[in-house]
Each structure stands twice: as structure tokens, then as C-alpha cells.
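**User:**
My hope is that you can spare some time for a protein that puzzles me. This is the protein in question:
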Amino acid sequence: MRSATGHEAITAFVEDRILPGTDWNLVKVRRKSIRLEPPHAYWATYRVRIGRGDPVFPEPDDGGSVFDPVAAGGGLSYSGVEPLEAIAANDDGALLEPSWSEERELRLVARSVFDPEHWLAFRARIVELYGDRACEPLGGHGFPVIFDETQHVIWFYPIDPNLHGLWRSADPDEVLQLFRNHASEILDHRGRSSITSVRMELARYVPEISAIIRYDVAAEPASAYKTMSGKAPPGQRGAAMNRSTNDVWNAAQDSDGRLEFPRPPR
């Protein structure tokens, strides 16, 4: 299972299933985290960096290291350069890599199931939710890909089988329209300001558990901008969380200033 969701397997999956027929190139695959819940499941999350356009090669380091051909015990020394032993000790194996004029980062999740019965139940839920939708994270959504032999599934954020509304929370058009519909509740200068754009950044993502997204809301006038955070919980917990936060806000209004709490959207 660890081999099926390891670096080599994920790299091969991206190169063989995702990138063919596109002008994107694989830059780097880096494992971000793993989570184990025996005896049921194992998760591995990866950051996959891809690029296209013109390659941009890193400039050589000009941080002051100077070649100094001074004989020292029959050898040569370098002023301003660490001893080779120290470099080897600190090196994690990463080499300078060329980048591209346009780059993207994809979040990939590999989810394995140990027990055959649990696998069949999880597989049936994936098929019920997504059917045979294609995994197309570059131009659409990275719907799950099922591997029966090794009992694991691969999908790409913001698709998540347990966070049903996550993809809408991460869709720029959906979020912009939603915020504009609630602009009077979001912006301070009500009636005299409008939302012009929303920039979003994924702050935290734990597959099938939760996701937190930061939203930078640009407005006109510029002084009306806001920074907000949104959380995507599993199942129908979002509605319950919204009711709870509104209850806390209402309690704050009756606390004579002893409790301060930001007003949640209604």
C-alpha cells in the first residue's frame, strides 16, 4: 500500500494519466503529509508542481564565495565556502531545478483502505457520488480514480468525497457571486461599496475532515477590502456551525461589551 501511494507511483500517475495531451510539464512531486487510521484507512497528500511556457533556469549563486587557490596541505581552499563535509551533512538531496514562466500547484490525495469489506463499501460510495467522471484537474475537476488491485483511490483538491461543498468554496466564480450577493453583510461601507474580485488561498486541508480557505476580498473603494476565512466541514455540519456562530454573535450583543465576536453572514 505504501508503494502504491509512494512518490514513484504518484509521479507515474501524473505523467501517464494527467499530463499527456497537454503542454504542461512535471516539475516536482512532494509528499506533504500522511495519516493512518488502522485498521481502516491510510491517506497520503502530495503537492504536485507543474509548469509550461518558457523554462527559466536558476541563476548561479553569487553570494560572495570566491575561489582562492591557496595551497593548504597540498590541496586548494575556497574562501566563503562551507567544507564539503558540512555541505553533505546539510544537504537534503534537493537540487536547483529549472522553473517555468507559468506554474501551477495541484493538491493530490491518495486514500487506501486495508480491509476488503471496508474497501468495497468505500468504493461503492465513490461510484455513487461520482460515477465515471474523468479525472481532469487541469481543465476541470480531479474526480477520483479507483485502483481495485491495490485498494486505493486518487483524487485532486477541491474534490473530496466527504466535503461535498468544498469544490464550490474553492471555485472563483461561485465565490465571487456568493460574496456579491452578501456584499452588504461583508463590507463595512454598506450601500457605498462593491466587491470587485476575490483572491483565495488554501490555508489548511485535511482530506475528508475539513478545509480552511482564506479569501482576500477586493472592493471599491479600496479601503473597504476584507480578509475572511471559510471552513468546509464534513457532511451537513456547515449549517450547524453557522447556527452556532450566529448564536454566539447574538449573545455578544447582549453582553454589554464583555464578549466581542465578528458578525457571521446571515
